[in-house]
Design a protein that fits this description.
Radius of gyration of chain A: 23 Å
Number of domains of chain A: 1
CATH class of chain B: Mainly Alpha
Structural class of chain A: mainly beta
Oligomer: heterotrimer
Low-confidence stretches of chain B: 1-14
CATH class of chain A: Mainly Beta
Helix content of chain B: 55-70%
Shape of chain A: flat
Mean pLDDT of chain B: 94
Number of helices of chain A: 2
Strand content of chain A: 35-45%
Helix content of chain A: under 10%
Largest sheet of chain B: none
Number of strands of chain A: 17
CATH topology of chain A: Immunoglobulin-like
Chains: A mainly beta (243), B mainly alpha (588), C alpha+beta (223)
Largest interface: B-C, 101 and 89 residues
Structural class of chain B: mainly alpha
Number of domains of chain B: 1
Strand content of chain B: under 5%
CATH architecture of chain A: Sandwich
Number of helices of chain B: 17
Order of helices and strands of chain B: HHHHHHHHHHHHHHHHH
Shape of chain B: globular
CATH architecture of chain B: Up-down Bundle
Chain lengths: 243, 588, 223
């Protein structure tokens, strides 16, 4: 009886010690800081080549005029769209991003990818949708992740996930050589793509000093360093010049 | 005067106290090994057929959900609709399984193993344990190839010809592990073939029975001998190429990738240098067995035995210098097109000689149309079509037009199915009694033959027409091309014929399996044939003979004036026969 | 329903179709001889009670005849075929005045580069269009074939022209269209999952229509 009791006490002590030793640091408080800004475009807006979709009548019919390539999208207010802005570094090593709610959708409509530039979290499903109902293939030329090349001959959705961060994964359709998209895979949710007004927002940041990178498919990358605390909102603008 | 070894080794033949595993699983008995090849290859024949059925569904009914397609995963056929990348896996795997795991092992693995010792008069192969290994490496190769259908990213999909750089780079094909497993599997196939060839060649040269001179050997054995030499020399080239391809795929070499200094055409030269002798490996044993069967069915000696032997040797020899005819428009130097054309046209001649000799054998015979004879005559009729269509391809300007069209698909199926597979149906039926001690059902054999003949021609003859119209190979959906749309009714006709053809093969399979236990018990010599194997009981026992027979004549002495019967076995001693001066070799 | 070779639209159809027909006749004769022979023998010499087969091991004279006739036929066929092969595909077969167009094949499209107003490839006025091959009728055309990635094959059935396109090699193929109209290029070497859709249109224009098209296309391209 006494032996049993001694064993029980030793066991409890060991268990408590083990628990203390392997105790996880507490999760950082849900961040409240925000970094936002605009991507300015300096110089003359380049003319984008037209896309001849004659070989794909079903797609051509979806356009009133002639569609153009989307390599450089300059908005009416002189800002640059399709710039991928994200937190490159600055989060604590122990930071665990909460799991994303739901998939990110990439749609093939009118023989174009919508959106042209997008972000996704590691492990988050990418729902690749074929709204055109004609053959598309999606080739992901990933380097850190597993590349893939799958076809979708009809209206359907395929799901893929990426398990390593990678900026950026090039996506293309080999059946329609003009179709390109760019996917940024990150271990957190702090990314944003500049839209029709050229602005981006990275919200919910925990306090800290961050390197923010802005990536454009033609004009390359630029970085900025921003320190935020509490529920601050800081501005960081970027400017890309025509080449 | 009698063979020195005959008395010494006689005792072991009938004492068989081996365990079940040693008798039937890890057997070194050439007959059991042949039967192992038979069971496994028939399974792979079925696999190859199932793959073709799916292809024909897509071609006949493009984009429609396949009946039963629901069992396939989303990556192959979502909602039962075959995906383009799955279609080209089907194309690739159908060709791969049929060539390497069905026809080649059925002809060589089964019949070289089963027939050689029996028909030349010896107890077993020269190297029984190596022989066993040739089966197990084959099985491993087959299982590896089968597994490649189930791996992530799917199976290899660059056609059974595996042209690089599509096959070498994952980013071009979309396949990864499956492509690599193809190479690994082929390395095993090559090994199996080499091990087998070593046995066949050595045994035939060294272990013939007394009196079995070279020119008393049946043509089935001659053809298996020559085939074994082809295999010994050609398969290493394929294995070498497969190793190079595997290295390109996994360790970063660039033999075949021009983007980094490799040569795409190098693969083609290596592959076809193997590939052309390979197709003669796929036909010569069939020709040899057909000769035996036609002579038996005609009750007449084979017409022009010596020419037949020389024709086999000529075909095999010339087979080494024609490989470029697969590459006339490949981008290789056009002058090579001229030289390969010459050799290709020349190789038509020995095949023509053989065809006329088979007809000469039937001429003025007393024809018995047992099931094997039906198949053998159909072989001649179908092989001729395949051979004649080959002449169109040999003429390089015409080949420029019909290369990579269904005309080629028609040609290859006429020689491989109309030729080799019909010969195999005949040969399996013919030697079944000696393998299993039972007869296959004759009426069902005839039903199977006639239905197969009908549906087979309905399936493959129209492909000559669609090929002439310009229909390319390996197209998931030919209707994408305006000029091919009018051919859709033909494609539907072909598909339906193919489904009926496949269904008909169930008759053969059921006949085969049912007869193993329920077939009529077979007499010793049901076909009244002359070969040495018919001197043994049905089935033949382990070790074959206690004392090997002595041979007094050639294998085709049917309707001989020396005999009251219309056959005269090689081993029957007539009062006028003398003993052979010496045993040809120091065999037992 | 189409039962024969495609429509004839180039100078190659004469020799190639002619050779095809000649071979068809020769092989047709052999085919009839063998098949009718087999059926005839099967009926005539079938087993009947009291019959005996004729015991013979062969006939050397017959062997010589039926070896010689195919051999002579094959030699003749070879000589005729080679003549046309050299004419169509030989190293020096491309006519000196052939009009050049660059064709760059990639998974799964065709990029045609036109020489522009100066008629020369490799100059500043060249322009590239996807999946459309425009050519003038009645002139030899030389297509300079290159591949971005895997082996493709340039094939226009009505021109009877086919040439594999090999990455790492620059290959020329020529043809001369004879009938104006629209045709299709089919990729004729398995090149991946989109192989079945790797199609381009071929427009054979009269010379004046071609010049008009060239002017308009060049203008659009420079915008």
């Amino acid at each position: 009886m006494r032996k049993l009791g001694a064993m029980a006490v030793t066991g409890a002590v060991l268990a408590l010690a083990l628990a203390a030793w392997t105790r996880q640091p507490p999760l950082p408080a849900q961040g409240g800081a925000k970094v936002a800004g605009k991507i300015k475009f300096v110089g003359t807006k380049p003319a984008m080549p037209k896309i001849d979709m004659t070989e794909e009548p079903k797609c051509k019919a979806k356009y009133q005029g002639v569609p153009t390539e989307e390599t450089v999208v300059v908005n009416a207010n002189g800002t640059l769209g399709n710039v991928f802005v994200y937190v490159k570094s600055g989060l604590p090593a122990s930071y665990q991003a909460p799991a994303a709610a739901g998939p990110v959708t990439l749609d093939q409509d009118g023989c174009r990818y919508h959106p042209h530039v997008l972000g996704i979290q590691v492990g988050q499903p990418l729902a690749i949708k074929n709204s055109d109902g004609i053959l598309h293939n999606i080739k992901a030329k990933a380097k850190a992740n597993r590349p893939f090349n799958i076809s979708q001959p009809t209206v359907m959705t395929s799901s893929k996930t990426f398990d390593k961060p990678e900026v950026m994964v090039a996506l293309e359709c080999n059946v329609h050589g003009w179709m390109h998209a760019w996917l940024g895979v990150l271990p957190h949710s702090f990314f944003s793509v500049s839209g029709g007004d050229g602005s981006f927002t990275l919200a919910g940041l925990p306090p800290g000093t961050y390197t923010i990178e802005a990536w454009h498919e033609k004009y390359g990358t630029q970085t900025a360093t921003v320190t935020v605390a509490g529920s601050e909102a800081k501005t960081a603008d970027f400017s890309f010049a025509a080449k | 005067m009698t063979s020195v070894a005959a008395t010494a080794h006689g005792a072991h033949a009938h004492h068989d106290d081996r365990s079940f595993v040693k008798k039937y699983i890890f057997s070194t008995d050439h007959k059991i090994i042949g039967i192992q090849f038979l069971f496994v290859s028939l399974f792979f024949l079925l696999v190859g057929g199932l793959l073709a059925m799916q292809m024909r569904w897509q071609l006949g009914f493009p984009g429609k959900p396949m009946p039963g397609g629901g069992v396939l995963p989303e990556t192959m056929a979502p909602g039962g609709v075959i995906l383009p990348e799955y279609y080209i896996q089907l194309v690739t795997m159908h060709g791969t399984f049929m060539v390497f795991f069905a026809i080649m092992p059925l002809l060589v693995g089964v019949f070289a193993n089963f027939l050689i010792p029996l028909k030349i008069g010896t107890h077993d192969m020269a190297f029984p344990r190596i022989n066993m290994w040739s089966f197990w490496t084959f099985l491993i190769g087959g299982l590896v190839m089968l597994s490649s259908l189930f791996v992530p990213d799917g199976a290899a999909r660059a056609g059974w010809t595996m042209y690089a750089p599509l096959s070498a780079r994952h980013d071009y094909s979309g396949a990864s592990l499956g492509q690599e497993l193809w190479s690994v599997s082929i390395i095993f196939v090559g090994l199996s073939s080499i091990l087998g060839s070593l046995n066949y060649i050595t045994t035939i040269i060294n272990n013939r029975a007394p009196g079995m001179t070279w020119f008393r050997m049946p043509l089935s054995i001659w053809s298996l001998f020559i085939t074994a030499i082809l295999g010994l020399l050609a398969l290493p080239v394929l294995s070498g190429a497969a190793i190079m391809l595997l290295f390109d795929q996994i360790i970063g070499t660039h033999f075949f990738d021009p983007a980094v200094g490799g040569q795409a055409l190098l693969w083609q030269h290596l592959f076809w240098f193997f590939g052309h002798p390979e197709v003669y490996i796929l036909i010569l044993p069939a020709m040899g067995m057909v000769s035996d069967i036609i002579s038996n069915g005609s009750r007449k000696p084979i017409f022009g035995y010596h020419s037949m032997v020389f024709a086999i040797v000529a075909i095999a020899f010339l087979g080494w210098i024609v490989w470029g005819h697969h590459m006339f428009v490949s981008g290789m130097n056009p002058t090579l097109g001229s030289s390969f054309m010459v050799s290709t046209l020349v190789i038509a001649v020995p095949s023509a000689v053989k065809t006329f000799n088979w007809m000469g054998t039937m001429w003025r015979g007393n024809l018995r149309f047992h099931v094997p004879m039906l198949h053998a005559v159909a072989f001649v009729a179908m092989f001729v079509i395949g051979g004649l269509s080959g002449i169109f391809m040999a003429a390089t300007p015409v080949d420029m037009f019909i290369h990579d069209t269904y005309f080629i698909v028609a040609h290859l199926h006429y020689v491989l199915f109309g030729g080799s597979l019909f010969a195999l149906f005949g040969a399996i039926t013919y030697w079944y009694p000696k393998m299993f001690g039972r007869m296959m059902s004759e009426p069902w054999g005839k039903v199977h033959f006639w239905l197969t003949f009908l549906f087979y021609n309905c399936t493959f003859f129209p492909m000559h027409i669609t090929g002439m119209a310009g229909e390319m190979r390996r197209l998931y959906d030919p209707n994408q091309y305006t000029f091919l749309q009018p051919l859709q009714p033909i494609r539907v006709f072909i598909s339906i014929s193919a489904f009926l053809l496949f269904a008909t093969q169930l008759i053969f399979f059921v006949n085969f399996w049912w007869s193993l236990k329920k077939g009529k018990p077979a007499p010793q010599n049901p076909w009244e044939d002359n070969g040495l194997e018919w001197s043994l009981p049905s089935p033949a026992p382990h070790g074959n003979w206690e004392k090997v027979p002595t041979v007094y004549r050639g294998p085709y002495e049917f309707s001989s004036p020396q005999s009251t019967e219309d056959y005269l076995p090689q081993y029957t001693k007539l009062p006028t026969d003398r003993e052979p001066a010496r045993a040809p070799v120091a065999g037992h | 329903m189409h039962w024969w070779l495609p429509a004839k639209a180039s100078t190659f159809t004469g020799p190639i179709d002619g050779l095809f027909l000649a071979i068809l006749i020769i092989t047709g004769i052999a085919f009839v001889l063998v098949e009718v022979g087999l059926i005839w023998f099967s009926v005539q010499y079938r087993q009947r009670p009291g019959r005996k087969a004729f015991y013979t091991h062969g006939n050397t004279r017959a062997e010589v005849i039926w070896t010689a006739i195919p051999a002579v036929t094959m030699v003749a066929l070879g000589l005729i075929s080679n003549h046309y092969w050299v004419e169509i595909k030989g190293r020096n077969s491309v006519p000196a005045n052939a009009y050049p167009i660059g064709i760059h094949a990639k998974q799964f499209e065709w990029q045609m580069t036109y020489p522009g107003a100066d008629g020369k490839l490799g100059t500043a006025d060249d322009f590239t269009i996807r999946n459309q091959l425009h050519v003038p009728v009645g002139r030899p055309i030389v297509v300079q074939l290159s591949s971005e990635d895997v082996i493709h094959s340039f094939y226009v059935p009505q021109f009877r022209v086919r040439q594999d396109i090999v990455p790492g090699m620059d290959i020329k193929a020529w043809f001369q269209p004879t009938v104006a109209g629209t045709y299709e290029i089919g990729c004729s070497q398995l090149c991946g999952l989109g192989h079945y859709r790797m199609r381009a249109q071929v427009f054979v224009h009269t010379q004046e229509d071609y010049d008009a098209w060239m002017k308009q296309a060049a203008q659009e391209a420079s915008q």
